[in-house]
What we know:
globular; two-stranded antiparallel ribbon; mainly alpha; 30 helices
Amino acid sequence: MSKGYLENEAFGEVMVFFRDMMRGDVKPNRYSLPEVLKACCKMLALREGEELHCLSVKNGFKSSVYCGTILIELYSGCGCLAWGYRVFAEMIVRNVVVWTTMINCYAANGDLYSARSLFDLAPERDIVLWNRMITAYMDSGDMLEARKLFDTMPVHDLMSFNVLLNGYANNGDVLECCRLFNSMKDRNIFTWNALIRGYLRNGCFTDVFDTFKRMLAEAHIQPNDATIVFVLTACSRLASLDFGKWMHIYAENNGYKANVYVCNALMEMYAKCGCVESAISVFRNMPQKDMISWNTIINVLAVHGHGAEALHLFSEMKATGRKPDGITFVGVLNACSHMGLVKDGLHHFHSMKTEYSVEPRIEHYGCVVDLLARRGLLDQAMKFLQDMPIKPDVVIWTTLLAASRVHKKLELAELCLQKLIDLDPENPANYVTLSNVYGEAQKWKDLARLKVALNGMGLKKQPGCSSIETEDGVLEFYAFDERHPKRSEIYEAIRGLTIAMTLQACGRDDETLEFMLETEINSST
């Protein structure tokens, strides 16, 4: 009975069932005691765990490896590492699982010195123990020590290589990650996913596409849902709609049409590419939806100006019995902001805590400031900002600065800039916004003073980067970019388009337009 409760994560019911068993004078055995100890471990119930510890000693289970291992995990999870080690030290029989558990507890609590000391003392080390110690170094960012330990392993299996591969990927060393991948003779889907994920985490989105294509061409391995989600995320970052559509078809043809994780990634991809209707279609066709599904579609609709639809879906979500979380309310507040629904937005904000026990975070306060600022209620926005229990961040002050420009509030704009300088002094975009405010208000002396100050600090605004999808893949470029090998032909085409648009605006006929374009092209060659 207790095993069934445990498998269904009904940990409280396990405890109740065990108490009823004890009241019925039924003694615990080597099967029932570990199950209730597991429930305590999952619930981090320290007091009940201590009582069970005493009970296990009284009933002759002190030497039980299984009970001892769970007790170590329990005490460690509750922050009582010393008690966990005491259980470990008092155990008569300690197999490799017990050693691994104790080392894992030290590593999970950040005590790498104790973890390594125990590792060096372990009489037996299996592949799991080696990998756990290597992972501990990787989690702390010490890839040098992780690699050194990896090189001393007596036997390397595929799992060991995958562990190290993930370590390089997670710590941003894409070059070493790629080098290790290419040196591996055997690879499975987790190997390919580690490399793809490494490229994704470090912003190498085109390499994600190239690696995925290489996997399909070279390896007889079927991509799993994680692979598809990684590639779709890269499509989202690059707004690569064509490849994203191809991935959609590929996912459906390979049995992932109803996969919740893939569908959530598809919604985000279509949204980032501006195809809101396609995102809605994916959502509506999902047989099962999790909280991420609802949050994704609500935020997608809110950001793209479909506030009414976002609020309707919010009501639909609540009707299904799902409880909104903080991410849901970001979308709801954004929807109210875009629609100018100040009263409704404030109601939803206050309902977070009163109705749903969701503590507002800095992003929710930022949404309310944006809601008030968009409607020109700058005094109310400032009062709300001053009453916030959280210190305003750069985003909030930037929102107010932009609103000050729209409503020509010079004093507020200057206050916002001063706050932004304190928080983010190296960002020239703040000075640019204030210079626009001065220019539109014809405050030429203040504008000149600001530009002199900006030049004196040596700050330059970073150029924006755009991307375009071609037959050769996705290409990124900046303004006045000179890196492309066909830059002459590109700029020639831009000149031709500029002339064509200018003449079209002047009302020239098609024959004149064609003649002048040919003249320009011939003169440039």
